[in-house]
Amino acid sequence: MSNNMELKKVVVADIREKIEKAHSVVLVDYRGLTVAEVTELRRQCRERGVEYVVLKNTMVRLAAEELGIVGLEPYLNGPTAVAFGLKDAVAPAKVLTEFIKKAKKITIKCGVVDRKVINADGVQALSELPPKEVLIAKMMGSLNAPITNFVGVLSATLRSLVYAVDAVRKQKAGE
Q1: How confident is the prediction for the chain on average, in pLDDT?
Q2: CA distance 8 to 81
Q3: Are 139 and 82 in the same domain?
Q4: Confidence band for 93, pLDDT divided at 50, 70 and 90
Q5: Domain span at 105
Q6: Which candidate in 51, 65, 90, 168 could, as Cys together with 84 as Cys, close a disulfide (CB 3.0–4.6 Å)?
Q7: Between 130 and 106, whose confidence is greater?
């Protein structure tokens, strides 16, 4: 087997491994970005635990096929950069959509979440989700609400009982 073929297999295996480890993956068309803009985008990605890499479409397609990801082929044309969300599933979508608002040069092609392909609108919706900490706080509030209401009902019942006993006491005392 040729040395070139071995190198390609290594690259495909590396991409497959990154897709497996990532919570989410976002593919973008990066045409029109200057070197300074790409550097700034990479810096923003690093700060949020996102790996931003320019990859060949055929290599991404082969890695996706090995993982059984279906529906990615239509998006693999033209220049493609891939953002891997290694720490947070929402981070790549948030970083890229924020960058697009400023630069207006790149476009989101699609995303992959749990080995399912989502279109650009799905990636946009993903970027609008609140941070993980906010979602956890909302969930804890929802779980805490029934307990708080139950305690309120119990205290109201006890309060009513105390008022009733006090009324009986006043009646018998002749007050």
Answers
A1: 82
A2: 18
A3: no
A4: confident
A5: 3-129
A6: 51
A7: 106
